[in-house]
Specification:
Helix 2 packs across helix 12. The chain contains 13 helices and no strands. It has 277 residues and is mostly helical. It is flat, with a radius of gyration of 24 Å. It folds into 2 domains: 38 residues; 193 residues, MetI-like fold (Orthogonal Bundle), CATH 1.10.3720.10. The protein is 75% helix and 0% strand.
């Protein structure tokens, strides 16, 4: 009887692992297919075969395009500055919305979140006219400010839930021990919400990095980001699928690398505290 249970247990474990493998393959297949296309030679591009001689010609062609590396750098600078500024503004705002009770608190919090609901194409025309008058077209500061519409609301909404989960008694006990409010905030509260900060920072960075409409209309030629420069491989007469796949793969690397580096805090941040209304 025990041997039968052992056999069924082993079979169940193998079946479960196989199902998980199929699910992981299904989820990762777009990325796998993009890698395959980036390594395929042109003569095998329109075929579905997985048997071919890999080549790096597509990557050489992408690196050989004038301005592509510059667009990657522009995207990295603008996204990093936007998320950094969002942290400076958003962390205190999330603390205030999560800790203090005042009239209109929920309305203000929902207003911040509602900024994420507005389609970019709906506000790009008035933004373009305002930026044109202020001389912010094709500037780093212009893209950084508009990217706040992407990262700041998400960061405030996520961190608000973390601050609400922290008991006010912790702050009171620390102040009784002689800590000032600033010391309590930086030495006690911020380390406690660190997983949330990491998760919100990564999500905000990915959203900023993938932004297309703002970068296309407000960045222009001198401040072109990698999401925009990838479209140059879509010619009017033909599409260089291998070049597009290689450029998209290179553009996705920063987010993947960042997620791998902070995956421990990311998993905790997305599963603890979370988003709550």
């Amino acid at each position: 009887m025990d041997s039968n249970k052992g056999i069924f247990g082993l079979f169940g474990s193998i079946l479960r692992n196989f199902v998980l493998f199929l699910y992981a393959l299904f989820v990762l297949f777009p990325l796998i297919w993009m890698v395959i296309l980036s390594l395929k030679p042109d003569e095998h591009m329109v075929t579905t075969t997985f048997i071919f001689s890999p080549t790096l010609e597509n990557f050489r062609a992408v690196f050989g395009q004038e301005g592509f590396l510059r667009s990657l750098w522009n995207n990295l600078v603008v996204s990093s500055l936007a998320v950094g500024l969002s942290l400076v503004v958003g962390v205190p705002a999330a603390y205030a919305l999560g800790r203090y009770q005042f009239k209109g608190r929920e309305e203000i919090a929902f207003t911040f979140l509602s900024f994420r609901f507005v389609p970019e194409i709906l506000i790009i025309i008035p933004l373009y006219l305002i930026y044109q008058k202020l001389g912010l077209i094709e500037s780093v500061s212009g893209l950084v400010w508009v990217y706040q519409l992407i990262s700041l609301p998400l960061l405030i909404w996520i961190l608000r839930g973390f601050f609400e989960d922290i008991s006010p008694d912790i702050e009171g006990a620390a102040q009784l021990d002689g800590y000032s409010w600033w010391q309590v905030f930086f030495k006690i509260l911020l380390p406690m919400v660190k997983p949330g900060i990491v998760a919100a920072t990564l999500l905000g960075f990915i959203l900023c990095w993938n932004s297309f409409t703002f970068a296309l209309q407000l960045g222009g030629a001198s401040m072109q980001t990698s999401t925009v420069s990838t479209t140059r491989f879509l010619a009017s007469d033909t599409v260089h699928y291998g070049w597009v796949a290689a450029a998209a793969l290179l553009s996705s690397l920063p987010g993947v690398i960042l997620a791998l580096l902070i995956q421990k805090h990311l998993v905790r941040g997305l599963s603890f505290g979370a988003v709550k209304g």
